[in-house]
Amino acid sequence: MAPLPPDGTDRFYLDYECGDREHTLLCRFTGGASPASFGTFMDTFLTGIEGLLYTVTVLGVRFGATGSGVTLPVVSGIEGNTYGASSPVPQGVPNYLRFQGRSAGGRKCSFDVFTINLSDANFRITSAENGAIGTAVGQLNAATNLFVGIDGDGVTWKPYVNVKASSYWTRAIRNGG
């Protein structure tokens, strides 16, 4: 498939912090979702998986319009909220959950949630193994106007998450960062 422009859909960016490290979650959407509806969804979603997270604090939400590389802060109602418990140990900093799916147009989709307070022997947690993951995947599949693919089509999410470690954050920890 030919590549599509990264600004081909409206986007929300959820900026958050875990420990002293900042991360951003990207959500492509259609259907005129409001910052408040995104905030409500993310609050429910993060509350549902907070047992798997170190303490995460939402720093803010930004909006990027279709065709624009500029993002602007918006008020979603979850700014300053915290989810999870305890500060990450250095070995936990690189770990994250990757939710994966495919759009109706055939495009692969994924998004990551850093920093998770768990490990898994086979690096995958299915909905059957963990009720929080099952609920989270169900919420994603029900949110038909949020988390669309880069092509703007709805996404069917896999019934599992992959447990991964970021090479970037691993190097940063090794180098004292």
Query: What gross morphology would you assign?
Result: globular
Note the gap between the termini: 38 Å
Poorly predicted parts = none
Radius of gyration: 16 Å
- Please trace the helix and strand order, writing H or E for each element: EEHEEEEEEHEH
Number of helices: 3
Mean pLDDT over the full residue set: 92
Count the domains: 1
Q: Indicate the percent of residues in helices.
A: 10-25%
Strand segment tally: 9
Structural class from helices and strands? alpha+beta
Largest sheet: 5 strands, antiparallel
Proportion of beta-strand residues:
35-45%
Q: What is the structure about, briefly put?
A:
The protein has 177 residues and is α+β, with helices and mostly antiparallel strands. The chain has helices spanning 35-49, 131-142, 167-174; strands at 10-18, 21-29, 56-64, 71-74, 82-83, 95-103, 108-114, 124-126, 155-165.
List the helices and strands and how they pair.
Layout: E1 10-18, E2 21-29, H1 35-49, E3 56-64, E4 71-74, E5 82-83, E6 95-103, E7 108-114, E8 124-126, H2 131-142, E9 155-165, H3 167-174
Antiparallel strand pairs: 1-2, 1-3, 3-4, 3-5, 6-7, 6-9, 8-9
Helix pairs in contact: 1-2
Describe the structure.
It is a single chain. 20% of the residues lie in helices and 36% in strands. The mean pLDDT is 92. Helix 1 packs antiparallel against helix 2 (131-142). The protein is globular and about 40 Å long. The strands form two sheets. Strands 1, 2, 3, 4 and 5 form a five-stranded antiparallel β-sheet that branches. With 177 residues, it is α+β, with helices and mostly antiparallel strands. The chain contains three helices and nine strands, in the order E-E-H-E-E-E-E-E-E-H-E-H. A hairpin with a 4-residue loop joins strand 6 and strand 7 (108-114). The protein has one domain.
